[in-house]
Amino acid sequence: MKILLVDDHSTVRLGIRLVLQAAEDLEVVGEAADGAAAVSMVRALSPDVVLMDLRMPVMDGIAATAQISGQTRVIVLTTFDDDDYLFGALQAGAHGFLLKTAEPQAIIDAVRAAGRGQSVLDPQVTARVMERALAAAPPAVLPEELTAREREVLQGIGEGLSNPQLAQRLGIGESTVKTHVSAVLAKLGVSTRLQAAKIAYGAGG
């Protein structure tokens, strides 16, 4: 799986590169120090996953994410003081949020999950972003065609649960969870779990 690292701090890039090098199935194919360079490198290298910082010179992570989200999967690298940027990245099409302080194995697992087409949600970050967004947003109304099980799945998505965690909570297989998640996204008219999580929060969980 090919990874592109995007961060204006070389020490951060080095640290993440060292973490990812411990996994034989992950390959860091490039590094960029700003969003504009990231956009160019995505076109040239076609990475499977981009780990994207938000606050950078030349072009920030939000603008870069908006340009490349249709070509690759973007996981935002974030700290807790980036609320405005976080919500902007969600709207730009980011597929996940990952804390820079995450444990090495959590970073590896998140990249693998993104490469498999899953969204990566850190529950703490997700809750903070959604609470801020919903403070000025009208309550969301869930589609009537959502089944009881799909509502349970949506609630779990809103809590930031992964597919394995949802499977354990609901007592069903992961393949069944994936089917339910796909149905939920389709009925809500969204393309990512992050967008579904926003709706779940707006509907009161």
Characterization of the model:
The protein has ten helices and five strands. With 205 residues, it is an alpha/beta fold. It has a five-stranded parallel sheet, sandwiched between helices. It is globular and about 45 Å long.
SSE map:
Blueprint: E1 2-6, H1 10-21, E2 27-32, H2 35-45, E3 49-52, H3 61-68, E4 73-78, H4 83-92, E5 96-99, H5 104-115, H6 123-134, H7 148-158, H8 163-170, H9 174-188, H10 193-202
Parallel strand pairs: 1-2, 1-3, 3-4, 4-5
- Provide the residue-averaged pLDDT: 86
Return the structural class: alpha/beta
Please give the radius of gyration in angstroms: 17 Å
Bin the helical content.
Answer: 40-55%
Count of strand segments: 5
* Spatial strand arrangement across the major sheet: 2-1-3-4-5
From the N-terminal CA to the C-terminal CA, the straight-line distance is 34 Å
Count of runs of 4 or more consecutive helical residues: 10
Poorly predicted residue ranges: none
Biggest sheet character: 5 strands, parallel
**Outline type:** globular
Could you spell the SSE succession in H and E letters?
EHEHEHEHEHHHHHH
Amount of beta strand: 5-15%
Features:
single chain; globular
Quick overview of this protein structure:
By secondary structure, the chain is an alpha/beta fold. Helices cover 53% and strands 12% of the residues.
